[in-house]
């Protein structure tokens, strides 16, 4: 990501002197001790003790320890209401289903990038020898189990490999919590609001060094009308690295 160029600055220091060279400046004289005692230094006059901001009367997210998990959960009803409002807000600002899913995916990507940082921080603080996975299947298992438990308090229901393409894997959730309270109208039947979750998964994979294209698809099953499959299609470089590691090169 390119960083913006710094603002141009104008130097206040002159390279030349405006005073003629033949005129010597008088040596500085120090004020009498009586004056120094009556007039303290400017620095001491301007120094102001730091004060803490007034408390809001209740703990905020900044006051909670990052390693403490108990009591940090958000009620499902509150989250469902918030996400429903996010979908409605985004729907009013797009022109089609594809654009809406892309917008939800982008929002999820922002959440996933931050949540991965939190998970890594917690794992490094709780483990004496933290380990970073470099193989494909352990990373997918991390998403299927660890990430899903951290997000939804339960693991995903299935992790499968595509039979048609070697670079495609599928993570399925029979009852996705995000869209449990969202009703899709008939004219938007092809919409998958789980594009937000797909964005989270894509950001986590990017952060772990496994770039992929992640999409969400509604795949209803008997007894699970809201069953969703997260399709992960890895980049070619990831598959080449996995093949090289498998051969021990």
**H/E element order:** HHHHHEEHEEH
User: Overall pLDDT, averaged?
Assistant: 78
Largest sheet: 4 strands, antiparallel
N-end to C-end Cα span: 32 Å
Which oligomerization state do the chains in this entry correspond to?
single chain
Strand order of the largest sheet: 1-2-4-3
Tell how many strands the DSSP assignment holds: 4
Please give the structural blueprint:
Blueprint: H1 33-38, H2 42-46, H3 76-91, H4 97-126, H5 136-152, E1 158-161, E2 168-173, H6 195-208, E3 212-218, E4 228-234, H7 236-246
Antiparallel strand pairs: 1-2, 2-4, 3-4
Helix pairs in contact: 4-6
Index terms:
4-stranded antiparallel sheet; 4 strands; 249 residues; alpha+beta
Explain what the structure shows.
- By secondary structure, the chain is of the alpha+beta class.
- It has helices at 33-38, 42-46, 76-91, 97-126, 136-152, 195-208, 236-246, and strands spanning 158-161, 168-173, 212-218, 228-234.
- Helix 4 (97-126) crosses helix 6.
- The two termini are 32 Å apart.
- Residues 5-25 and 40-48 have low confidence and may be disordered.
Structure summary:
The protein is an alpha+beta fold. 40% of the residues lie in helices and 10% in strands. The chain is built from seven helices and four strands, in the order H-H-H-H-H-E-E-H-E-E-H.
